[in-house]
Automatic annotation (TrEMBL):
Lineage: Eukaryota, Sar, Alveolata, Perkinsozoa, Perkinsea
Origin superkingdom: Eukaryota
Protein name: Uncharacterized protein
Amino acid sequence: VGLWIAKASALPSSPPSLIEYINDLDIPVWVAGTTSWRQLAKRGLWCTGSADGLGEQEDPDLSSIAPGLKKWIKVTHCNAGERQHIAVPDGEPCKETLGTYALKSKYTPESCPSDLKTATHIFWGSGSAYAEALRLSEGLVDRVEVHGCGPGHTFDALRDAGIPEERIVITLNFSEFCDRVRRPGARTLSLGLKGSCVIN
């Protein structure tokens, strides 16, 4: 079995011997991006590779990384639906989803950050963050002019929510999103990043 870890915090910190166990058994570990890779490495986990934030639809040819492996398990949140399964070409190991944490709302509409209510440019770290923001901020759909996200599930979630593709800027991270929307001629607005915020 191999582990495909969607976010560093998805790998539980207990029992304390879990990372040692994964390393000792030489279980292949693939992570969503380099940020998660660094965080897991600090915890002592050996990561085999990363999707580099490109999304799960990118074929990393996992069968060449771990020949003979029969199963990859995606470690993610409990609310990850069928759509969150990793698509694999015929002949590659099947993948299952293991939810290790539940998504919980941090805010009510009254207590949500004020910049969420005024932002015109938002980089979304996940589709669930977008869904939560819709619940918290009336008028968000009409007010936000530019939505940023990675090329994977978050992009699919925004597109499925009806956001026109010309209003979505695909980047690998928030910093790149800021650079893209600030650059002249790169689908920017005269407001620049005034009122922008990050939703993780």
